[in-house]
Model the fold of this input.
Amino acid sequence: MSNTSELKSTFAAKKAQLEADLKRLKADAQGKGNDAIKSIESRLSELNAEMSIKTGTSELKTKIEAKKAQLEADLLRLKADAQGKGNEAIKAIETRLAEVNASVKEGWHNLSEDVVTKLNSWLKKS
Done:
């Protein structure tokens, strides 16, 4: 196994644990554990940034993944805080995430010029 594969595996395991902790806190706290949720969201963001640096991902992918992480964190926070309110904001974030996920569904290797243009446009919308 190469060093990059080992790093990705290690980061994936850490990320999965943090995401599980975040999901548990959200379920347990029902909007009351915001400090713990923010702490885990921050650790997830840092982990994603560290993984991007150490695995040598492209600049565009790094920006997209960072923005996705931010939107996912915003979405979780809205869902935890809103308790049924703010559905428009939740739907808007879910739509933005769906847009970027559709653009990179074939992976980051061999992105067409059209997809790169769409991704750069997506970043500018934020």
Summary: Residues 3-125 form one domain. The chain has a mean pLDDT of 75. The radius of gyration is 16 Å. The longest helix spans residues 3-29.
